[in-house]
Amino acid sequence: MPFQSTKILTVFTVGALCYGLMEILCRGFTHITMGLLGGSAFLVIHTLNSDRRDGKIRLLPILFISAFFITSIEFLSGEILNRTLGMNIWSYSEIPFNLDGQICVPFAVIWFGVSLIGVAADDYLRKFIFHEKLICRRVPAVEPQGAIA
Question: Which pTM was predicted?
Answer without folding.
Answer: 0.88
